[in-house]
Amino acid sequence: MDWYASLSIIAVGALVAASAGMVGCFLVLRRLALLGDAISHAVLPGIALAFLLTGSRGTLIMVLGAGALGILTTFLVQSLQRAGVQEDAGIGVSFTALFAIGVVLVSLFAGKVDLDLDCVLYGEIAYTPWDTLVVGGINLGPESVWIMGGIFLLVVAVIGAFYKELKICAFDPAMAAAVGINVALVHYLLMGLVSVTTVGAFESVGAILVVAMMIVPAATAYLLTERLGTMLVLAAAQGVVSAVLGYFVARHFDSSIAAAMTTVSGALFTLAFLFAPRTGVVARALAHRGLRQESARGLRV
Amino acid sequence: MAEYPLEVRDLTVAYHRKPVVQSVNLTLPEGQLVGVVGPNGAGKSTMLKAILGLVPAAAGEVRVFGRPYAAQRSLVGYVPQRGSVDWDFPTDALDVVLMGRYGRLGWFRRPGAKDRELAMECLRQVGMADFANRQISQLSGGQQQRVFLARALAQDARLYFMDEPFAGVDAATEKAIVSLLGALKERGKTVVVVHHDLQTVKEYFDWLVLLNMRLIAFGPTEEVFTAENLQKAYGGRLTQFGAGAAAVLAAAKEA
What we know:
The complex is a heterodimer. Chain A is mainly α.
């Protein structure tokens, strides 16, 4: 494989991972990791419907279809919860039902359409270099890089513009509501970002691994810092490192690229879990040993 | 016509059709420290949350300085129960206090140098200036409570609601809260405090709201804090408190 192909695959992987990692920070902090999982699956019928209705695989249409379903999922989960269904049960019911509808739609029309279920579930980042964006006869390079680049910028812009609202709604939603911040609107905004990131990542890494890309970098960053701003940067960085290393691991073992990226991400999380400066397993064990020795010395004196 | 800091008319809150707060009517005078007292499950916190629009009211009307609450948010400061948030959140004490400014800033504006200065001043007032850059999970329960109070101060309100600020705090924090309440009163603020310790009621509050789902009594503490009213609010439960409650009742009788 030449440099052009490698670079475009790494670029897409890194952009997906960085966008998902930043959005994931807010999911992890609000203990909504499961809702991210739900939305990433529930957008499938939106994508299928958008495709069936317009016959186009145009990205904007896909993003709109997925966005609509993401919002619908959020709405369903909240309505069920308000009607007395437990939140996790509500999430489980909504997303599995929507995902199943999506699978039915895709398999029903699979003959007519170029939507492949394997591709939806696992993505195919290896095709990235050959789906190029051509505008006015000029080849602008891989389309996915442009799409994910746009989504990355959108994620950065939205988090930048609504940083303090996202923060206070994650930390203390009651206080946020009391001072007049529209907590529901901020919630839908975040879920909108989750949906858009998911659909962008769909083609490259698929519905299953995008969940890993949302949660694992954020969970890693959470262990390493005590500042929200730093956490966002670390999560994005963890995603990028996973994408780059994962690519070379996949080349070496000739394995699935997206899976290798996720595996590296999981390995990085494990490292942080064991060796994080204050919260890590090793650091805590050492601190406890220190305390024991101190008290033992105290007894001898 | 005088504008009262808080007027509550016929406030009723229900969970699953079961009333938790029923037909409460209140009119609070300005510049007083008001304690809200009643047995566990009496709906004290729920009433507070309904006043602030955080739980839907089944019926009733709330006016703050003569207008509906939604139009007067900037005049109201709120201290939620300490346990209502995740103290492992990646942020420091100063940043939490700065959140008190968010309501005034509105969309898109970030807190600036002036807001930071004000937030530092608020931390100083609760004796927490040295902990400004401390991660909030590393603070003790009492210190966390003081950070919450500083955040309410940063809201720069005229009417404050505090939900159990004295719950599970150390003696130093209790003292800090009491002196803060005094300072707020001196500045003419009205403070409504959900409280659970009958022994300190007379010492801390000018006015009292005695609640047990319904409003049992409200008015100046010396008038409301009577054995008869307490018996009405707590019923048989008061005797379960044993000697402490007996002392309180005795104190109430003397008054």
